UniProtKB/TrEMBL annotation, chain A:
It comes from the Bacteria. Transmembrane segments: none annotated. Keywords: ATP-binding, Nucleotide-binding, Transport. This is Branched-chain amino acid transport system ATP-binding protein. GO terms for cellular component: plasma membrane. Pfam families: ABC_tran, BCA_ABC_TP_C. The keyword Magnesium does not apply. InterPro entries: AAA+_ATPase, ABC_AA/LPS_Transport, ABC_transporter-like_ATP-bd, BCA_ABC_TP_C, P-loop_NTPase. It comes from Microvirga lupini.
Automatic annotation (TrEMBL), chain B:
This is Branched-chain amino acid transport system permease protein. The keyword Membrane applies. It comes from the Bacteria. One of its GO terms (molecular function) is transmembrane transporter activity. Pfam families: BPD_transp_2. GO terms for biological process: amino acid transport. Belongs to the binding-protein-dependent transport system permease family. LivHM subfamily. It comes from Microvirga lupini.
Automatic annotation (TrEMBL), chain C:
It comes from the Bacteria. PANTHER family: ABC TRANSPORTER ATP-BINDING PROTEIN, HIGH-AFFINITY BRANCHED-CHAIN AMINO ACID TRANSPORT SYSTEM PERMEASE. GO terms for cellular component: plasma membrane. Coiled coil: none annotated. It is a multi-pass membrane protein. This is Branched-chain amino acid transport system permease protein. It comes from Microvirga lupini. The chain crosses the membrane at residues 19-37, 49-74, 94-116, 172-191, 221-239, 260-282, 294-310. It holds the Pfam family BPD_transp_2. GO terms for molecular function: branched-chain amino acid transmembrane transporter activity. Keywords: Cell membrane, Membrane, Transmembrane, Transmembrane helix. Its main location: membrane. It is found in: Cell membrane. InterPro entries: ABC_transp_permease (IPR001851), LivM-like (IPR043428).
Length: 250, 284, 344
């Protein structure tokens, strides 16, 4: 398998604090990869580095073999790196239909189009429909986003990222705050995405990812602690220890 | 030359007393209060009316010029302003512009649109020669009063319990609330106090700045410059900004009158573009 | 099943682009006033101009979320550009309009880089500062602008070489209304386009907009420039139809007034500026007749009340009302035949 996303010696310091400590990481093509770690392990910092929200102190980032370390966030999106946020980042005053339509038409270069009415292109319509069905949003398409149930908002968040037709999809705790019953369904939806989309899932809840991922990396104190298959990581006593140590703290 | 510097410092100190209340509303409540100048105008008119119509001596009017706007500020804060803290900046701007329009028209209606002149007591008139520098007595008086106020403010902020609570509230209102600090009481007190200071500044400045119904509009930009250029997390920032602005304005009007306020506005834009957080603040 | 959804999606999206009956009525009534209210053409002309000015503010405030206290900068620049051209012999109105639009657009483009930095407050200050600087320049450069005396000696040629301006303001009103209408159509197209959608998304949540791959700054620069050009045209219309320009066009109260106009009519649906202009002018007329000097007080009171009563809620209500009346299209989306996609 080829590599979709790679970091080499990635470091991020905030003053004296090392938030990301020399992380060299590979995401394989078509992978369903999970990055887990206790609270404060630097998971979100890592994803922010990948997407360009913050700049690394040292190290490089490659998307499909091309370096993107210095690229602005929106250009990374255009190159095929999309993300979701841990806390819902949506457009509260727009409908899911408009939101997905926006992402689709932006990707097709429509955002510079100021004369055509949105939705007059067949390809855009078809894609909106496809995405809405995939993420089970067809029944709420015309509601105001701020009025949607939380689980639907989470789905919409992922749907929007997916509408950017990413090569790599970064999901920052997509199931956070979603009722227990809906969590596995949500992750199943993600797992069922086409295999040409590589997914990196960031998650705090270890047990949740075992059903989803085929590979797991563990981040502790900003550094890669271990990496392996679900089998290997779930039986690794050190990983359990890291989590247990944390839960004692809490 | 030194006279201009001196006049500039007096002017700057006056600006500080006028604007520091705004720094607090902005820094503490994150409220864009364009009506701040209206409180200053109220103070000015209290002094002018008491002196000219009732013959009260100048010094005796000053406490009233403080108390009047302070009470007005307290009432408005409790009844109107506090509803708007959580609103968008656009709403705050619209609301306070509305207040300014009302204040301007109301003053115009009650006292006419002409300049209000006040007659300074004789011991404050004239100039003296100190070490070859021509120094206006009234400006020295302003510097002394305002200087004392600055020191007092600094002491209140750093040494008293109220000051430390206020700083905590400015830093993070939510955390402050969590510590059991009555933030809304602090809001009201500082708002009233800031309005009072503005009123006092308006009274002191009536002679130098001029006083007519358009006062809040004319000086709005100056107050805003002081707080945006100076930043709002301490009082040193606005204080330095006031001095700079005062000296630059006086010197500019003296040396290059044809350029006028142009320089001030341009400088403000440049500063804001380069240092959006203010000139004296660490970038966050 | 899937085709049903596709139809629904399409009609939902396209519906926004379609003209409602109420909208058509609105403009028909506006056109009718040309014949039925001849004695009111002077004030109607002002309404059309203020409406266009407020419309331009709506583009940046309502669609891009930029709070500006200095929108008069562009209005004033447009007015002076058109006025100076006409004074110096270039009397063709459309030429002046074009020049004003270009001048204001250039100023908008350049200053947009200053405005788009920093917080709301910085934006307020920078926009205000730009307008003040321009006001100072106009004041000082009296050889060019006439300074405090105002720009005099403007004589306009006939529009398109055909229509002379008359003293009743009929030509002026027809001219301003036509220009406002044409620019409105363009603005209306823009806000329902993908570009307009991306602007709304930026206003809603700039961080997320970036995450969807939208070049946020470039979009904002574009709309700021466009809005500046609109304001410039509005200013030019004022200069040409009143044949006079004074420093007043750059004054702070103009920026404040236009904001008020927009707020009265409601932000973010384009008609707000136009409706606000009508209400504002009628109010001004009524109040000034009653108490000429102090009408500012009542305007201030109205502002305070609007804000305290919950501006957003009011706007929402006006907008829904407007949608109810104006947004009703000939066919409801459910009954829309599959073929009638109204491609444009």
């Amino acid at each position: 398998m080829t590599i979709a996303l790679e970091t080499k010696g990635l470091v991020k310091r905030f003053g004296g604090l090392v938030a990301t400590d020399n992380v060299s990481f590979k995401l394989e093509h078509g992978a369903r990869h999970a990055l887990i770690g206790p609270n404060g392990a630097g998971k979100t910092t890592f994803i922010n580095l990948l997407t360009g929200v913050i700049k690394p102190t040292a190290g490089q980032i490659f998307l499909e073999g091309q370096e993107i370390t210095g690229l602005r966030p929106e250009l990374r999106v255009q190159r095929g790196l999309a993300r979701t946020f841990q806390i819902n980042q949506l457009f509260p005053a727009m409908t899911p239909l408009e939101t997905i339509g926006l992402a689709v038409s932006e990707r097709l270069g429509g955002g510079r189009d100021w004369w055509r009415v949105t939705g007059s292109k067949r390809e855009i319509i078809d894609e909106i429909v496809e995405i809405a069905q995939r993420f089970r949003l067809t029944d709420v398409l015309d509601e105001r986003t701020s009025n949607l149930a939380y689980g639907k908002q989470r789905l919409l968040e992922i749907a929007v990222a997916f509408a950017c037709r990413p090569r790599v999809l970064l999901l920052d705790e997509p199931a956070a705050g979603v009722p227990e019953a809906e969590r596995h369904e949500l992750l199943a939806t993600v797992a069922a995405l086409p295999r040409d989309v590589s997914v990196l899932l960031i998650e705090h809840d270890m047990d949740l990812v075992f059903s989803f991922a085929d590979r797991i990396s563990v981040l502790v104190n900003g550094a890669l602690f271990t990496e392996g298959t679900v089998e290997e990581v779930s039986t690794d006593p050190r990983v359990r220890a890291v989590y247990l140590g944390e839960s004692v703290d809490e | 030359m030194l006279t201009i510097l001196f006049d500039g410092i007096a002017y700057g100190m006056l600006l500080f007393v006028l604007a520091c209340g705004l720094a607090v509303t902005l820094g503490l409540m994150n409220f864009v209060n364009l009506a701040h100048g209206a409180f200053a105008m109220a103070g000015g008119y209290i002094t002018a009316v008491l002196m000219n119509r009732m013959g009260v001596p100048f010094l005796a009017t000053l406490p009233l010029a403080f108390i009047g706007p302070a009470i007005l500020g307290l009432v408005l804060e409790r009844t109107l302003y506090k509803r708007l803290y959580t609103r968008s900046h656009l709403d705050q701007v619209l609301f306070s512009i509305g207040l300014v329009f009302m204040a301007v028209a109301a003053i115009d209606y009650s006292f006419g649109s002409q300049q209000q002149l006040i007659q300074l007591p004789s011991w404050l008139q004239g100039r003296v020669d100190i070490l070859g520098v021509q120094v206006g007595l009234y400006r020295s008086f302003i510097i002394v009063i305002c200087g004392a106020l600055v020191v007092a403010l600094q002491l209140i902020l750093t040494k008293t319990r109220f000051g430390s609570r206020l700083r905590a509230a400015v830093d993070d209102p939510r955390v402050a609330r969590g510590l059991g600090i009555n933030v809304s009481l602090i809001f009201a007190t500082t708002f009233a106090f800031g309005s009072g200071l503005a009123g006092l500044g308006g009274a002191l400045g009536a002679e130098i700045l001029g006083l007519d119904p358009t006062f809040p509009l004319k000086f709005m930009i100056y107050f805003l410059i002081v707080v945006t250029v100076g930043g709002t997390t301490s009082i040193t920032g606005p204080f330095l900004a006031s001095l700079l602005l005062g000296i630059a304005d006086v010197a500019g009007k003296y040396y290059v009158p044809s350029v006028g306020a142009f320089v001030i506005y341009t400088l403000m834009i440049v500063v804001l573009v380069l240092r959006p957080q203010g000139l004296f603040e660490r970038a966050r | 099943m899937s085709t049903n959804i596709a139809d629904h999606v399409r009609s939902s999206l396209v519906r926004r682009g379609r003209w409602g009956i109420g909208e058509i009525l609105f403009w028909l009534i506006a056109a009718a006033t040309l014949y039925f209210l001849p004695e009111r053409h002077l004030i109607l002309n002002e309404i059309a101009i203020i409406g266009l000015f407020a419309l331009s503010l709506d583009l940046i405030l309502g669609y891009a979320g930029i709070v500006s206290l200095g929108h008069a900068a562009f209005f004033g620049l447009g007015a002076y550009t058109a006025g100076i051209l006409a004074r110096d012999g270039l009397a063709d109105p459309l030429l002046g309009l074009g020049a004003a639009a270009i001048a204001a657009a250039i100023l908008g483009f350049v200053t947009s880089f200053l405005v788009l930095r920093g917080s709301d407050l910085t934006k307020l200050m920078v926009t205000l500062g730009v307008a003040l600087v321009l006001g100072e320049i106009a004041n000082q450069a009296s050889w060019l602008t006439g300074g405090a005396d105002g720009l005099q000696g403007i004589t306009m040629g006939p529009i398109l070489g055909l229509f002379e301006f008359d003293i009743f303001g009929t030509t002026a009103y027809a001219y301003s209304l036509t220009v406002t209408f044409l620019l409105f159509i363009v603005a209306r197209r823009i806000v329902v386009s993908p570009y307009g959608l991306s602007l709304r998304s930026i206003r809603d949540n700039p961080l997320k907009a970036r995450a969807v791959g939208i070049p946020v700054n470039r979009r904002l620069v574009a709309v700021y420039t466009l809005a500046a050009a609109y304001a410039g045209v509005a200013g030019a219309l004022l200069a040409q139809t009143t044949q006079f320009v004074s420093l007043d066009v750059l004054a702070f109260h103009r920026s404040a007034d236009v904001m008020l106009v927009l707020v009265i009519g409601g932000v973010g649906y384009l008609y707000g500026g136009l409706i606000g202009a009508i209400v504002f002018k009628v109010l001004q007329d009524v109040i000034s007749a009653w108490t000429p000097q102090y009408w500012q007080f009542w305007i201030g009171l109205i502002l305070v009340i609007i804000v305290l009563a919950g501006r957003e809620r009011l706007t929402e209500r006006v907008r829904t009302l407007w949608k109810g009346v104006a947004g009703r299209t000939a066919k409801s989306p459910e009954t829309l035949p599959k073929t009638s996609t109204r491609e444009v």
